[in-house]
């Protein structure tokens, strides 16, 4: 038996390929109580940009964004980073 999540989780999506196809994922995100914000950088977010809002998120789906120790120290709620690409 699958147990549903009682709490809403918030994720940040910065990977352009997912953002462009977000409609394919809306139903499964909603079913699993996952709120999401899409922020599309020109190429990738720098650590200084990420530090401004990373504290709000439980998870991230990203491309080549600059996650370093400084960013991670601000990410108190962060549980997972899913990095797409190389």
Helix and strand topology:
Elements: E1 9-13, H1 16-20, H2 26-31, E2 34-38, H3 47-53, E3 59-62, H4 69-74, E4 80-83
Parallel strand pairs: 1-2, 1-3, 3-4
Distance between the termini: 36 Å
Radius of gyration (CA) equals: 13 Å
Strand content: 15-25%
Q: For the largest sheet, list the strands in their spatial order.
A: 2-1-3-4
Counted up, domains total 1
Shape category: globular
Structure notes:
With 86 residues, this protein is of the alpha/beta class. The protein contains four helices and four strands. Strands 2-1-3-4 form a four-stranded parallel β-sheet. β3, α4 and β4 form a beta-alpha-beta unit. The N and C termini lie far apart (36 Å).
Structural features:
alpha/beta; Rossmann fold; 4 strands
Describe, in short, the structure shown.
The chain has 86 residues and is α/β, with parallel strands linked by helices. Helices cover 28% and strands 21% of the residues. The chain is globular.
């Amino acid at each position: 038996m699958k147990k549903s999540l009682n709490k809403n989780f918030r994720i940040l999506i910065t990977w352009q390929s997912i953002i462009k196809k977000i409609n394919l994922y809306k139903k499964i995100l909603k079913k699993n109580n996952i709120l999401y914000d899409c922020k599309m950088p020109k190429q990738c977010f720098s650590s200084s940009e990420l530090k401004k809002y990373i504290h709000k998120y439980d998870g991230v789906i990203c491309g080549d964004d600059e996650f370093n120790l400084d960013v991670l120290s601000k990410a108190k709620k962060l549980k997972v980073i899913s990095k797409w690409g190389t």
